[in-house]
């Protein structure tokens, strides 16, 4: 075992180290199944000895550094005492702060990093970290009037560039930043701060009041400043390009925001905002259908719109409708109403959906009054007459949802929609016609109502309807609105027309010996009999009879109670009738028959 081990080590030494190795067994023992052998290797180890001696000489070498050399190597150093008083400072730092020696560090500099409390113990604990300071006060910039910069202008007879123009310095406040390491000196029991200034380029250096020779030579601060200046042109160009791209992108984003707002506005006109947001989130249209137990629907249209359109051009019709709908749409949000659709002059809106509300009937009536105020400001451009609308309202349950894919619309379905349309069709100009269902939802003390005759809706039982004439304030007084003046004027015109119709009788009637003309209206019966050349007239309500017989010489009246007295009509003389029937519209038509013998003028 010994001989084989000796040969093995000799081969390893000669093969890998080119060294002859002699092996001697110092001791050998066995414990259980393990044999412990101590070997002594004998070979030439001069390489290790030379390296050990060289290291020993280096460690024992005591090098000294002159103070002037140290200050030249570290022009921005500071020696700090245990009380954080600055005992000494570098030459460049002294030029910037002439009175820095003797001041406290915290009075001149602010510690940026590490984030610790600036005291002796914390500095010792974090001595392996990089310390960065910045001056508390901005540097005092003294512009040297004698400093010059290169002027590229060349005189005619001199090719040398002249140094003529003074340096231009930035007026922005500049703060000095120092970055370096804290080293503890055991002999002096002080800390030396080996710092270098942080300067991005030559402009910052000049504005700070420093020069290239003020920077340390042992580090790369000079190279960094010069390299930054050389790259500043390319960086500035790249920065300008990025700023331009950023500006274009910002303008594009603003334009996109404007277009998105327009798109949202258009979408919210077609679909309520709540439903549109759910549709954007990916919900299916079938899930957007919802049943509303109670809501109020309003229909309106322009009175006589067909005859108005007959005298207008298509562009004038569109202009009128646009003006009218624009005025109506301004009141929608004020009264929590949603415009369902517009077809021609028909305007449909609803309150109580998609946001449920208890006072939807009152909101619809407030909207209706505002619509009446707005419509009187729209006039027919041909006749300059004010337009008039009629309004109908009904309350009831409906189903609301999205219908359509290419052009989706928020639609209402239910019997309440058709009933509201029928209520509107039976309304009058500048009137608000409501159903009994809507009437029950309103505060009776807040409005003035006029009951209408019962009407049959969709073949069901007859129901009461009402005209809402006015709205009252809290004190019970009627609120005077702008449309009331037009409404009263319209009522006066209707009264005058009715009165003139009651007094109007056909001016000429031919009397035929064999023709009998009769008519009846509201109990008023009028007959004209000519077989015996006589005229008779009677009424069921007034209980009087006037009979006349036409002769060649004239007509002799036969008197009864309340009859016309002293009446004599000769040929071609007028017969003046002074009594007025209650409803003579249809009765007067009986005098327009063809009579063959005579003509009697009636005024």
Features:
603 residues, alpha+beta, Beta-Lactamase, Alpha-Beta Plaits, eight-stranded mixed sheet, six-stranded antiparallel sheet, disordered C terminus
Radius of gyration, CA atoms, in whole angstroms: 56 Å
Overall pLDDT confidence: 74
Q: Uncertain spans, ≥5 residues at pLDDT below 50?
A: 141-170, 507-603
Fraction of residues in helix:
25-40%
Q: In CATH, what is the homologous superfamily of the largest domain?
A: Nucleotide cyclase, GGDEF domain
Question: How many DSSP H or I helices?
Answer: 16
Largest sheet: 8 strands, mixed
What is the CATH topology descriptor of the largest domain? Answer: Alpha-Beta Plaits
Reading off the top of the CATH hierarchy, the class of the largest domain is best stated as: Alpha Beta
Q: Kindly, what is the distance between the CA atoms of the first and last residues, rounded to a whole number of angstroms?
A: 163 Å
CATH architecture of the largest domain: 2-Layer Sandwich
Q: How much strand content do the residues show?
A: 25-35%
The number of domains: 4
Kindly state the number of beta strands: 25
**Structural class designation:** alpha+beta
| Shape assignment | elongated
Write structural notes for this entry.
Helices cover 33% and strands 28% of the residues. Strands 11, 12, 13, 14, 15, 16, 17 and 18 form an eight-stranded mixed sheet that branches. It folds into four domains: 2-60, no CATH class; 67-141 and 169-219, Beta-Lactamase (2-Layer Sandwich), CATH 3.30.450; 282-495, Alpha-Beta Plaits (2-Layer Sandwich), CATH 3.30.70; 504-601, no CATH class. With 603 residues, it is α+β, with helices and mostly antiparallel strands. The longest helix is centred in the middle third of the chain and has 50 residues, at 221-270. It is built from 16 helices and 25 strands. Strand 23 and strand 24 (555-558) form a beta hairpin.
